[in-house]
Design goal:
alpha/beta, four-stranded mixed β-sheet, 13 helices, about 40% helix, binds pyridoxal-5'-phosphate
Length: about 400
């Protein structure tokens, strides 16, 4: 099939939910993807923060194919050694007490929202169900996670949305305090707003959230769907902030390319989600868990995390030297670039034409390279970006 044939079929047979870049990708290795026409692309996207180990990493391919050949799915009616290994590893790496495995970021967040409401219901009865999220946040595409998302553009068409979310201005502790009334059971934030434009929260603000939540037995919940799995140079971003949330949600990079999400909770929440209160058919699928086990065994060593931080610093320093770059922000290998000419979308499209896959978020360019990208690949990608930015 040619690219034009694929594009025509996409137009004819798929719901038009995405504006796509003008290439069809069919294979890849490391941080290089190959188009259907044989053209190669340096990858600064890792499939929106998913392919932690790059394309078709040898260890990951072996783990996944061995598991596919052993047993592909068993349902959650039986015990699975892979599920328990992944859950145990996540708890050991974080100090959390229990894990629920699911298939996506939105599902992990649904579990967090249900956990918060049930914790409060069990302990205080009805009427304490409100969850405070932040203006400009993004928490997913289900009706409830859209409701949790603090951006008006997402609150359209699909009425009625799930009730019980209020939005506080990020980095404004007084605004948060104004929203905290007797009906609040949780505060739920991204530490670096990803889709919202790579906007980090201040350390003092995050510490203040923790303090208020602890005082009032309100759950402090962190959406690490994008920031987690070593993306920011810590295994989870909260660890770099030095706080201890009650709930953390994870997905994107966890499976290195297979769908798996996780909701982690602290000891006081261990028994909240009891038998019959939550479930999933696919969640914790053995192949997805084999993939996650491989990712977790690789991206969590101190040496690996130091490499992520070093590569992130290198990329940020090199970006500062490129024309049309107005501001660079982010942490580790989660990087946002504000352009002087306010032309991120055009730059991203031009980059693809020139052999570089790159993301946008709001009116920024956004980089989420595979964590294993080499300096050689980084330099090649930055070379293309420089050429496009300075054209
Ligand atoms: C991507 C993302 C989600 C949604 O994840 P899906 O796997 O697409 O459901 C939720 N929260 C954050 C912070 C994200 O970046």
């Amino acid at each position: 099939m040619t690219f034009e044939e694929i594009k025509n079929d996409e137009q004819q047979y798929m719901m038009h939910t995405y504006g796509r870049f003008q290439t069809a990708l069919v294979s890849g290795k490391g941080a290089v993807a190959k188009g259907v026409d044989g053209k190669e692309y340096i990858d600064f996207t890792s499939g929106i923060g998913v392919n932690s180990l790059g394309y078709c990493d040898d260890g990951w391919v072996k783990a996944v194919s061995d598991q596919a050949a052993a047993i592909q799915h068993i349902s959650n009616l039986y015990y699975s050694p892979l599920q328990t290994e992944v859950a145990k590893k996540l708890c050991e790496l974080t100090g959390f007490d229990k894990v629920f495995l699911c298939n996506s970021g939105a599902e992990a967040n649904e579990c967090a929202i249900k956990t918060a409401r049930k914790y409060s219901f069990d302990k205080y009865g009805q009427g304490r169900q409100k969850i405070i999220t932040l203006v400009n946040s993004f928490h997913g595409r289900t009706v409830t996670t859209l409701a949790a998302t603090g951006q008006d553009v997402f609150h359209n068409y699909f009425f009625p949305f799930t009730d019980g979310f209020e939005f506080a201005a990020a980095n404004d502790i007084d605004d948060l305090k104004a929203h905290i009334k007797d009906d609040v059971c949780a505060v739920f934030v991204e530490l670096i707003q990803g889709e919202g434009g790579v906007m980090p929260l201040d350390k003092s603000y995050v510490e203040a959230i923790q303090t208020i939540c602890n005082e009032k037995d309100i759950l402090f919940m962190v959406d690490e769907v994008q920031t987690g799995i070593s993306r920011t140079g810590d295994f989870y971003c909260y660890q770099g902030y030095g706080v201890k949330p009650d709930v953390v949600t994870s997905a994107k990079g966890l499976g290195g390319g297979l769908p798996i999400g996780a909701c982690l909770c602290s000891e006081k929440l261990a028994d909240v989600m009891s038998a019959g209160t939550h479930g999933t058919t696919f969640g914790g699928n053995p192949i997805a868990c084999a993939a996650a086990k491989e990712v977790l065994s690789r991206v969590t060593t101190p040496e690996f995390l130091a490499e992520v931080r070093a590569k992130g610093e290198y990329i940020r320093a090199e970006l500062e030297k490129i024309g049309n770059v107005k501001e660079v922000r982010g942490r580790g290998m989660m990087i946002g670039i504000v352009t002087e000419k306010d032309n991120a979308k055009a730059v991203a499209a031009q980059c693809v034409e020139n052999g570089l896959l790159i993301l946008t978020a709001k009116d920024l360019l956004r980089l989420l390279p595979p964590l294993t990208i080499t300096y050689d690949e980084i330099n090649k990608g930055l070379g293309i970006l420089k050429k496009v930015m300075e054209a």
